[in-house]
Write a structure and sequence with these properties.
about 500 residues, Polyamine Oxidase, Chain A, domain 2, five-stranded parallel β-sheet, 16 helices, binds flavin-adenine dinucleotide
């Protein structure tokens, strides 16, 4: 093995070149550290990737960010992209229920309504559903807040009943976290909500308080996978009107332009960026850490691990055995099917910016659809009149049909499939069926100019019940090492707003 970096007191190694690793590298470089970033893949950005479909450069993963805090907007501004921040088209999002589509209410937090009698909520829940949900205001504050840990569904069912859970919360949580609300730790995916019940007296009031911004921190939806539903107050410069699905913003040209700018800035700062370099062993040295990647080793006094949870713990647990007990389960596998279609009938945006699918809806396999050209005006202009970009996502927690991670790319040679492989042909057929049903406009293979399938295997963190405690334990073990920090969505909470804010916080503490 050969040492590739000097073991100087200033040397820092970052493992993982997603947004959290790249941002960590920037903070370290600004603090005067000599930084090396190791990334297993051949491109930067992790879940904030890009692919070319039908001649358009599109986001292959994250395509927007929550504007509940200014974290992402501030980073964009720091990288010279402030002028590129855009609000989505104010068309709002929809939810597909077994009996048909409804406009998604301005629901507040993860689909949980601030007011069960809001006309859109009432239409979605029915009279009986709204009546049951309003019982929440009569229940003692202890209902749903007593247990040390609880799932999203236990909390919602206890306070507002089954209809809120099935018709509002499950579609939103499925679209954002690709998981069943029964499996997710409510304190991780909606921090502050349970405490808000005690402060404000009911779940609806706690949601309303978060919407007013009076709660300290929210982990509302990210807009990921699309339509995803939020109506949090917008704080970023591009604050859009309060329509469901609109408390997010994007970047003209796509979210991946943030990564392009970040990588350019890192190069300017002299950071060594090593792609196609998978870290496989971490060991303790007298002065810090030694990271091995194949035949090469990288010594550093500071180590930042910016990977998904299972990989992060798996990499470091031999050097730091106390971590082994805190390894999380793997996240769900998600497949995104992107269609570029020549279909002028979609110019009228039949389902606004997109539609989330309630899990019990018969006949639809997709969990969400984003009408990207209806959502982003810059993309509609780039595509041209009559040409549309539609993205459908497949795979909920526990669904093992989706494959291993692969960034988008053109390699299969299948006619019409940018980077698809033979197994994806069936998914294309499902996507055409689902798009036709969800958009109420027939979408056939004749309309398809190009398509692609991108698999994100285990890329979304799985915040199982009790995860918040796991995060605290991991942070305690790392802090005890003194020169080790872990960052990323599995610790910060899913979504760019959470990841950017948390990474900055963690790095500030480490550098201090
Ligand atoms: C399909 C999808 C859509 C999303 N949409 C949105 C959205 O619209 N809005 C939003 O806010 N959030 C969205 N998210 C979530 C958001 O993208 C993530 O929370 C965030 O990008 C996570 O960043 P990260 O740095 O923690 O991890 P990742 O982006 O997963 O980065 C980890 C990196 O580590 C690399 N790596 C893995 N193992 C090794 C190793 N051994 N050595 C070196 N490198 C390694 C990986 O290749 C990867 O590049 C989406 C996520 C997905 C999967």
């Amino acid at each position: 093995m050969s040492a590739a970096t000097p073991a100087s007191a200033e040397a820092a190694v970052v493992v993982g070149g997603g947004i959290s690793g790249l941002l960590a590298a920037l903070e370290l470089a600004k603090a005067g550290r000599d930084v090396t970033v190791l990334e297993a893949g051949d491109s930067w950005g992790g879940c904030v990737g890009s692919h070319m479909v039908g001649g358009l450069t599109l986001d292959s993963g994250a395509e927007s960010f929550a504007t509940r805090s200014s974290a992402v907007a501030d980073l964009a501004a720091e990288l010279g992209l402030a002028g590129n921040i855009v609000a989505p088209h104010p068309g709002g999002a929809w939810v597909q229920l077994p009996e048909g589509a409804r406009e998604l209410p301005k629901t507040g937090v993860l689909g949980i309504p601030a007011n069960p009698w809001d006309p859109e909520v009432r239409r979605t829940l029915g009279l009986a559903g709204s009546l049951r949900a309003s019982l929440d205001r009569l229940l003692p504050a202890s209902a749903g807040t007593r247990a040390a840990v609880t799932s999203v569904s236990d909390l919602v069912r206890a306070r507002m009943g089954r209809r809120v859970l099935e018709r509002l919360v499950a579609p939103v949580v499925g679209g954002v976290h690709s998981a069943d609300p029964a499996l997710l730790d409510v304190d991780m995916v909606a921090p502050g909500l349970r405490a808000g019940i005690r402060t404000h007296g009911s779940l609806a009031a706690a949601v309303a308080a978060q919407r007013r911004g009076s709660a300290s921190r929210q982990d509302d939806v990210t807009g990921q996978d699309n339509a995803a539903a939020t109506s949090q107050p917008a704080a970023a410069p591009a604050a859009p009107p309060a329509k469901a699905g609109s408390a997010v913003a994007g970047l003209r040209g796509g979210m991946h332009t943030l990564i392009t700018a970040l990588v350019a800035e890192l190069r300017r700062c002299g950071v060594r960026l090593l792609s196609s370099t998978r870290a496989d062993v971490v060991a303790r040295t007298a002065n810090g850490w030694r990271v091995s990647a194949g035949e090469r080793t990288y010594d550093a006094s500071l180590l930042v691990v910016a990977l998904d949870g299972p990989s992060a713990v798996g990499l470091v647990q031999e050097a730091v055995p106390d971590l082994a007990a805190h390894r999380p389960g793997a996240g769900p596998d998600v497949k995104l099917v992107t269609l570029v279609v020549d279909l002028p009938e979609l110019d009228r945006r039949p389902r606004g910016t997109g539609i989330l699918v309630a899990p019990q809806t018969p006949g639809i396999q997709a969990k969400a659809l984003t009408h990207a050209t209806a959502k982003w005006d810059w993309l509609a202009a780039a595509a041209g009149p009559g040409t549309h970009v539609v993205r459908l996502s497949y795979g909920r927690g526990g669904d093992t049909r989706a494959g291993k991670p692969r960034a988008g790319g053109a390699d299969s040679g299948l006619p019409g499939g940018t980077g698809a492989d033979a197994g994806d042909q069936g998914l294309l057929d499902a996507a055409l069926r689902d798009a036709s049903a969800l958009l109420t406009v027939p979408v056939t293979s004749n309309d398809v100019l190009d398509w692609d399938v991108v698999s994100w295997g285990g890329a979304l963190p799985f915040a199982a019940v009790g995860h918040r405690q796991r995060v605290a334990d991991v942070r305690r073990v790392c802090a005890a090492e003194g020169n080790l920090v872990m960052v990323g969505g599995w610790l910060a909470g899913n979504g760019l707003a959470a990841v950017v804010a948390d990474t900055k916080r963690q790095l500030a503490d480490l550098i201090r």
